[in-house]
Write a structure and sequence with these properties.
Strand content: 15-25%
Order of helices and strands: HHHHHEEEEHEH
Pfam families: DDE_5 (PF13546)
Structural class: alpha+beta
Number of helices: 7
Number of strands: 5
Protein name: Transposase IS701-like DDE domain-containing protein
Domain Transposase IS701-like DDE: 20-207
Low-confidence stretches: 212-224
Radius of gyration: 20 Å
Mean pLDDT: 88
Distance between the termini: 44 Å
Number of domains: 2
Length: 224
Amino acid sequence: MTKRRAIPTAPEPLEAYAGCFDDLFGKSNQRDEFRRYLEGLLLPTERNKTLTGLANTEPDVGAQHPRAQGMQWFLSESNWQERLVQEHRLHVLLEEPSTAPNDQGVLVIDEHGDRKRGHKTAHIGKQYLANLGKLDTGVVSVTSLWADEGVYYPVDFEPYTPADYFEQGKHDPAFRTKLKIGVELVRRAVQVPLPFRAVVADSFYGEDHGGSHKACVTSMSATC
C-alpha cells in the first residue's frame, strides 16, 4: 500500500477533527485544502463566507493569490462528495458524548439568505432574505438545526429555487415551496436517525396551502 503524502496539519484540536474526514478525500491536496477551509471558517473575521475571507487574503485582488486559487479549486472543481462529508459530520456529532442528541431536543426548520449579484449562481433571484429583513437579489436555503438546552448544531440544508426558474411557475410539478423542502429535511433527520421531541419553525412556513405538508410535519414530530 502506498503511504499517504504528509500535509501541513491544522492547529489542535482542529487537526484531530479534520483527521476524521481523511478517508473521504483521495488526494493529499484535498485533505490539505479541507483543513485550510475549516481554519477559514473559524477565523475571527466578517468575511469568512467569501472565498478570499476563507483563504485569508485581501478582498477582490486577493482572489488571484495561490491560497485563494487552491480554495477555489477545492470548493468548485475537486471531486469529493459533499453529501458523504455531511453524513460523516453528523456521525461524528452523534458519537461524541458532548454533542450526542437526546429525545428532549428539537429540530428547528429555518432559512438563510445570502445577497448575491449576477445571474450565474444557481438558485439566485430577487426574493425575501430573512436575515437581511428585506427583498434583495440573492440565494435562500432552508435549513435544519438540532438543539436542546445545552448545545445546538446544523443538521442539513437545501437550496430554495424561485418559481420563475420553472416553466409553469408555482404551478410547475418540479417547484417546491420552502415548507415542502422543510418537510424533506425532517424526513432526512428521521432517517439518520436523529431523536427530537418536536419540530419548530417560523410562522412564515405556515403560508402554504398544502395542508398535507403541515400534517406530515406534525405526524413526524409526534413519532420522533
